[in-house]
Amino acid sequence: MFRRSRPFVAAGLTCLALTLAACGSGSGSGSSSSNGGKIKVGLITKTDTNPYFVKMKQGAEQAAKSEGVSLMTAAGKFDGDNSGQVTALENMVAAGVKGVLITPSDSKAIVPAIQKARAKGVLVIALDTPLEPQSAADALFATDNEKAGELIGAYAKAAMAGRQAKIATMDLAPGVSVGVQRHNGFVKGFGVSDSDPSIVCSQDTGGDQAKGQAAMETCLQKSPDINLVYAINEPAALGAYTAIKAKGREKDVMIVAIDGGCSGVQAVKDGRIAATAQQYPLKMAADGVKAVAAYGKTGTKASGYTDTGVNLITDHPQTGIDAKDTGFGLQNCWG
């Protein structure tokens, strides 16, 4: 899942380096590791203020409390700060964590540090974003991004009700796996290929609202008759909506997106976005903490890929397409 850069709170890494034990959570005697102390679990996110990762941290904290383990957290200075994540990982390993949950900022560059951690017996679980290769971590807990794309593609196809589609895709950036998977899922779900003439414009947005608006303005200049927009995430979708509304076409252009953040679900409820595919960062982190706790107690390691779920959210369901309404979406959103 693509995440935008946010400000960094420096205390996170300082706490790890200097007073790691004070960063823990959990109460009571807790679960014990082989050395007699409480099992320690590390969580490293891309940033620590992005609402998606705030919700992820919340899930980890809740699970740590219920499992009676100690949670240590850190984040990069920005989305893409590999060196900050490497430092956090090394500090956590030195502090004796049994396992680390990580949303890698750089899926390739972090691999050598993860290999060193695993060689010391640390369980490493990637959350949200797979490593390259995926097998570089013991396990991956994440949304099936291609499935998310397929859901909104199938929904859009049904909602078009046989009308000729003129599609604009608001994509992420070249070569970024999450963006590629979501885009491919959308075209598959809609039943077309990238070379199909119904796709009249494709622009990269970086998942950013302002860039989404600019990209949509470009597409509308190229093809004023666009009637369907796929967006990599809800900020890009809302940027596209602003450009569409400025042309007075908000009533006849359908927008579909992926993420399920609270502002995005609200936009579905308000009618600015027709549907979104919701993912669950809280569950990713909670399940990850439970897996590390189980490893500490039994020695059994989590492995492979665990799909943490995705639901189509819309208040205008289509026959044959499974969906939840915005009431459900708002109860389970993040941000």
From TrEMBL:
Periplasmic binding protein domain ranges (all copies): 41-296
Signal peptide (from-to): 1-21
Family per similarity comment: Belongs to the bacterial solute-binding protein 2 family.
Domain of life: Bacteria
Keywords: Signal
Name of the protein this chain belongs to: Sugar ABC transporter substrate-binding protein
Organism: Actinacidiphila acidipaludis
One Pfam family this sequence matches: Peripla_BP_4
Compartments in which it is found: Cell envelope
